[in-house]
Amino acid sequence: MTPSLTLAVTAGVLVAAGVYLLTERSLTRILMGVLVMSNGVNLLFLVAMGPAGNPAIIGAFDGATMSDPLPQAMVLTAIVITMAVSAFVITMAYRSFQLNGNDEVSDDIEDARIRALAERDDVSDSYEDATFSDTGEDVVSE
């Protein structure tokens, strides 16, 4: 397989679509984003592997004509990791559906509190505005 621009562009489109789907609030779309992005990265590994060659068996073939086994091993590892992440996301989606009746990720209470503070532009009582200098003396403004 010779590297081609078509395969590289296809890998880029798959990764971009996967990243877009990861930004959604539905866990089903997040799962689809993980799967699509994983396929794009695997395709990118195969494109970067270079042309196909002889099996990587030492002594059986000339070293110059052997294919590099490292990208193949990385793709197999990526497939296993994708399967584990997919199982985890499916489990979270199922549990969310059991508890809430949908698989959407809701805002955390702490996130809502921080957003409210940001909208009011308040700072906490423990905030200390200090200016640090290279001389070792810290200036605290009140």
Automatic annotation (TrEMBL):
Annotated organism of origin: Propioniciclava soli
Keyword Cell membrane: yes
Assigned keywords, A-Z: Cell membrane, Membrane, Transmembrane, Transmembrane helix
Superkingdom as given in the UniProt entry: Bacteria
Family of the protein in this entry: Belongs to the CPA3 antiporters (TC 2.A.63) subunit C family.
Localization per Swiss-Prot or TrEMBL: Cell membrane
Name of the protein this chain belongs to: Na(+)/H(+) antiporter subunit C
Lineage: Bacteria, Bacillati, Actinomycetota, Actinomycetes, Propionibacteriales
TM ranges: 6-23, 30-53, 73-94
Membrane topology type: Multi-pass membrane protein
Renumbered residue ranges of the record's region Disordered: 122-142
Entries under InterPro entries matching the protein: CPA3_antiporter_subunitC, NUOK/Mnh_C1-like
